[in-house]
Structures are given as C-alpha cells and as structure tokens.
Write a structure and sequence with these properties.
Blueprint (H helix, E strand, L loop, with lengths): L3 H13 L9 H25 L2 H6 L1 H10 L20 E4 L4 E6 L2 E4 L6 H13 L28 E5 L5 H6 L5 E5 L6 H7 L7 E4 L2 E2 L7 E2 L1 H4 L7 E6 L5 H7 L1 H5 L2 E7 L6 H11 L3 E4 L4 E2 L11 E2 L2 E5 L7
Parallel strand pairs: 4-5, 4-9, 5-6, 7-8, 9-10
Antiparallel strand pairs: 1-2, 2-3, 10-14, 11-14, 12-13
Helix pairs in contact: 9-11
Amino acid sequence: MFDMSYLKRVLFNLIKNFHLMGKYNIQDDYLNKLNEIDRLRGFIVSLCLKNMPELAQQYSDELDFLDKKNIHDMFPYDQVKTLESDEILVGVDKRYKLPYVLHNGKKLFFPACWNPKEVSEKYKYYIERENLLGGGFTSKAPHQYQSEQFKIEPGDILLDIGCAEGLIALDSIDDLKKLYLYEADPIWQRPLHATFAPYKDKVVIINKWVSDKDDSTSVTLNSSVKEDPMEHFFVKMDIEGAEEMVIKGNSDFFLNRKINVACCTYHKYNHYSTLKDVFEKWGYSVSSSDGYMLCFMDNVFQPPYFRKGVIRASNIKTSNT
C-alpha cells in the first residue's frame, strides 16, 4: 500500500527548501558538461588524426587551431577581426514588442523571449564566427553561403529554406525580385513578419516544412513557386539534416529551372559527397565553401571528423561556382 505520509514529507521538504534551488543553475551545469565532452572530442580528433599522416596534412590548419586553443569550436579558425561595440545596435520595438538588432539600418527582429543582450550576442556570433555574410572575420569561412563569384544577383528570387530570423534574406532584400521564407518553427513567425513588413509586396512567408509532398504541414518547392516558373532562383538551405531528402524529393524543381543553390552539408557525415554526386548527375557545376567544420550533430564520430560546411551548385552556365 502506498504510504501517503512519505509523499507528504517529500513535498513538505521540497517546499521548505525550494529557495535553495536558486543556488544551482541546472542549465549551466548541463552546458558545462557538454563543453567538457566537446573538449574531449577535440582532443581525440587531434590525437587520432596526428597518427594518420595523410589526414594530418590535409587538416593541419584545423589541428593547429585545436591544439592552440584547447577547445572545441565548430569553426576551427582564428578570429581575424571583430565588430566594434558601436556597430551592434539593439533595442526593443514599441510597436511589435520584439527585440531587434539593426542590420544595415534595417531592423532584424528576434523572439519576444530573447533579451537585447542575447540578440546582440547571437548577431555577433552570426557575423564574426559563422561568417554567414562573409567579410573575412575568420581565416576561413566554412558556413559562408556566398562568395564573390557565387552570390545572389539583382533580380533573383531567393528561396530561404530554414530561414530562422532571416538575416541572409534581409541582407539581400533590396536586390531581390521576390523572397520566399520557409520556416516551420513557430517561434520565428512574429519576428519574420515584423522584419519583412516593409517589403510585404515581394515577400512570401511559408510556415511549413519543405518536403517531398504537399499537405497541411509540408510543402514542395514546385507548388510554392508555381507563380514564378521561369525565373532565376537562388536557393539557400539549412534544415538540420533534411537537405538530402528535400533536394532528391524536389528533383523536378532542380532539373527544370535556372538555379544557384547554397546548401548546408555539415549536419550529416556524408552529405557533401552525396549531394555533390546528385548535383553533378543533374548537370550542375559544384564547389564548396572554404575550410571545414567540426560537427557531431548526427553522432557519427569517425575520421576524418571535419566536414564541408556548404555545397554551392549551379546549372546557370554563365555563373562561376
């Protein structure tokens, strides 16, 4: 028989000592453990590859970074420059009641649950460490979607698949003929509508997963851009490992339109080689961002450990990838 008196004693002691729980930051403890695991992984990577001469030579820059910094970093490259503090202007918009950062004079909004400090730190990370927009902030930029030769051109239609806050789209908005934003996570809906309200005549926000079928929660690329069949498209894709499924499942789209595509390949161990084969089979020219990322999102922990961050592919013959 269950002892109710025992349960009452447990609840009494929990309530009595609840104030003491404030001394323990469970989130920080968890993050510290993750950082310890990542540092251990970085050490193992360095140790293993140094005993594989060919790989050690190929990834010498990245291994030097790991040894020098004694940390795990997805972007194993030195910081070349940083943003000045007065270059990051944040605030809370009175109309939308959302925090924002100014990007090229335009408000880039974030979720209401974020505070201005979090917004500032995230924006700084996007620009400085991820090099999402280029600018030479690190010695190599494996997560940079565009280059001088491979970029969004004036008059393009941008499909930002997995857009989150929409930084890349906002950075290009003035040059775009049209913009499709695909983001299924509801936390980004209010920020996206606020950010792109000034451009609503050429922006379509789609709160669905991009997939190989159309239903109440998913959408295909063909169905979502059926009003623009013969245009030039730039496709940017970052969808947490679903990239291969979406690309193969939307082959009609990629085979029958003029397209430049910049797609993340670091979520899965073999995604770069797999997608390279797919695009080359379809007649695309293929290249990649420079450098490598150290990423274990799919829990595959085996040599060579480092992964290409972004594949760039084009079937537009006048474009150089």
